[in-house]
Specification:
60% of the residues lie in helices and 10% in strands. The protein is of the alpha/beta class. The protein has a 4-stranded mixed sheet, sandwiched between helices. Helix 6 crosses helix 7. It is elongated. The two termini are 34 Å apart.
Length: 220
């Protein structure tokens, strides 16, 4: 027991008398823990700018664009009729995506045909790509649900029955361990543990090097 206590005392003495090791253990850990989580402090990326290209110019297309702009994931900064100019804005990082509503969008919906909305998003950043896609998907799904419910009610179903027919098996999803759905909540804590281990290994290596230099000096 005395030998163990002596070793612990010597180790603490070696740590607190080595300025380089102290810098790694104290300043390094402080900077890591305070600076690393800052880029992820917002948890979820919101209000990403996108460009809308409305080739239909109908009431239905304008409604869909309002739905998209109302989501928390994206916001429509401008409407353009030039795909090349919109693509250039994505390449210049001025916007993060392009939403294209094709011609005959409203006509296809009213005639019962499937309408397609194109989304061009920057896939270099997965979080940004996911948010752009999610925002547009939520808006199109909301518009699609409203159209289906109207068709059911026009066929003679009541509002409640139309809602049930549109979504016969509703899902109630609740994230248990990451309610915000954020990146920092589930990534930063384990990464900080890894950083702590890495810092300790660096400090141990520096202590070993210092002792090796002392032994070499004593031998000479």
């Amino acid at each position: 027991m005395r030998y163990l206590l002596r070793v612990i005392k010597e180790e603490y003495y070696a740590v607190f008398t080595d300025s380089g090791v102290l810098l790694i253990f104290i300043a390094g850990l402080a900077v890591y823990t305070m600076v690393y989580p800052v880029p992820y402090s917002r948890e979820v990326v919101k209000e990403l700018p996108v460009v809308a290209i409305d080739d239909d110019h109908s009431a239905m297309s304008r409604k869909l664009l309002r739905f998209i702009d109302a989501t928390e994931e994206v916001r429509i900064t401008e409407q353009s009729g030039n795909m090349h100019a919109a693509r250039q804005k994505v390449l210049n990082k001025e916007v993060w995506g392009i939403v294209v509503i094709p011609e005959d969008f409203e006509k296809d919906i009213l005639t019962g045909r499937q309408a397609v909305v194109a989304v061009h998003a920057d896939a270099c950043y997965f979080l940004i790509y996911r948010q752009v896609y999610t925002g547009v998907y939520k808006a199109t799904a909301t518009l699609s649900a409203g159209i289906e419910i109207r068709r059911f009610t026009a066929a003679g179903l009541g509002e409640k029955h139309a809602l049930r027919a549109r979504d016969p098996l509703p899902m109630d999803g609740r994230p248990l361990f990451n309610p915000a759905g954020g990146y920092a909540t589930y990534v930063v804590p384990p990464v900080l543990i890894l950083i702590l281990q890495q810092t300790l290994l660096i400090g141990i290596g520096m202590l070993g090097g210092t002792r090796a230099e002392k032994r070499r000096g004593e031998a000479l």
